[in-house]
Amino acid sequence: MNDNESASVTPRATLSLDGVSFRYPRGRRMILKDISAEFVSGRLYTLEGESGAGKSTLLTLLAGLAVPTSGRVLLNGEDIRALGQAKTADESGDGKKAAPRSMKGLTLYRRTVAATVPQANLLFDGRTVLENVLYPMQLKGVDREEAEERARGYLSDVKLGEELYDHFPSECSGGEQKRAAFARAMALDNPVVLADEPTANLDKGTSAIVSEILRMLAKERGRLVIAVSHDDLIPSMADERLFVRAGVLERE
Length: 252
Hints:
Structural class: alpha/beta
Order of helices and strands: HEEEHEEHEHHHEHEHEE
Number of strands: 10
Low-confidence stretches: 3-8, 88-93
Strand order of the largest sheet: 6-7-8-3-9-10
Number of helices: 8
Shape: globular
């Protein structure tokens, strides 16, 4: 754990699914069906199931990148679409109310709550590894010297050596890119980390490193971590394994 991280306090988060169903706008089939679940800080969860079961779709809803057809995604009891906004009279009652009209809350949620590590990594090709990790902190106005110190700490945490800091993503292996993507997610300092098949297409050794990063984020950093996984390594470290089967969420 680097000094900057140990000095910070990660806000605790409870993420809930409240009767969530989803189908694509022009689709007839319901991809997810009336899912309710709760996730808390300091725990590592896996979403498992066959291809096409709806795992990645569920993660997309948890990331605030799409909205449910019905039901709500809640952060500490509040609809993520309403974050940072005053409630109107018809949105402040109990029970499953209509979704808030404004979607500004989703933008706030993605910026300050949910850090997402997609399968494709999505590192900036024109920035070095170090610059990629610096970027989220630059957006938040963190002092350059402090940001660079923290970025180096995050890269050390994910076991990337200094010789790679000035490399561009195209000069790094797939596993190195994945670890850099996690370091950038850590730089956001958000309480929720969502990873979509983070060990896909990685060798056994690199998969073990990535799995340990997920465990570390939950257990040592107090993050709420949810990972979609097809292999056995991440689930073996998970506090709770959840399975998506035919659009329904089931516990182990």
